[in-house]
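User: I'm writing a short report section on ligand binding and want a predicted complex to refer to. Could you take this sequence and NAP and write out the structure as tokens? A short remark afterwards would be nice.
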Amino acid sequence: MPVCLITGASSGIGEALAREYARRGWAVGLIARRKPVLDGLVQELRSKGAKAAAAAADVTDRAALEEAVQLLEGELGTCDLMIANAGGDPGIGKRLEPEAIISTMNLNYNGVVYAMGAVLPRMQARKQGSIAVVSSIAHMRGIPRFGAYGASKAAVSSLCEALRPELAAWGIRLHTINPGFVRTPLTAANKSPMPFLLDADEAARRIANAIEVGKAIYTFPFPTRMAMAFATLLPAFLWDRLMGRGFKAK
Ligand SMILES: NC(=O)c1ccc[n+]([C@@H]2O[C@H](COP(=O)([O-])OP(=O)(O)OC[C@H]3O[C@@H](n4cnc5c(N)ncnc54)[C@H](OP(=O)(O)O)[C@@H]3O)[C@@H](O)[C@H]2O)c1
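Assistant: Sure. The structure tokens for the complex follow:
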């Protein structure tokens, strides 16, 4: 039975991915900070006949994350697929403060780097394995109010772009996943319009399909992808005028 480890499995996309992979016959190892929530999900998956286990870790704590991965591999077997999904926008609302920007980078960038590092040595030794990194469509162009978030996702996407051919030489696949808007606790507080919003279950199904067919970069849904591709073509003066409305120095 193949083994999938998922960070950020206690809610939203990660939780939906855990159900999706369990349904597809994988053993699933769940990682997040809220252990009681993970335990509840493990019970649910086991009651449906799946093999599942959970370990608590903060992904920004490298040692804790490595310990969690070790524990889950001991229980489920060596990881075949790591989905580095944990992330968010911890600096939201304090966007001009360096600490807020750095904490977002720590979660969305360092957290992914530590998740990769926790499984790579055994994947390299076996010359096989897959890593899927959940970035965001927001990495494609800087968006006011979401600067720290977008920058952290741009960093992660750029890293994956560079590592993909290197890891391929070891027989390891690297997938970059760029979701558009997905209905989760992360977007629940968002007051702005969220066109083409997907349910987390649908997003998880599409992500698992993309990984299964070996997509290197999966950006979805299609209309949001097209809109962002168009946005990247706009000159800076036009982008600034469109995005800068409503900002006041205060
Ligand atoms: N929803 C969207 O529209 C959307 C769009 C594009 C990309 N994404 C990306 O998709 C991923 C999942 O987001 P989501 O929308 O599903 O958000 P969510 O419902 O808020 O879930 C975030 C998950 O990450 C975990 N997490 C947060 N900080 C952590 C930390 N320091 N250590 C360990 N786990 C941590 C949370 O668990 P605990 O609190 O229990 O630790 C939770 O399980 C993120 O990388 C996000 O940037 C989301």
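A remark for your report: The chain has a mean pLDDT of 95. The longest strand covers residues 172-179.
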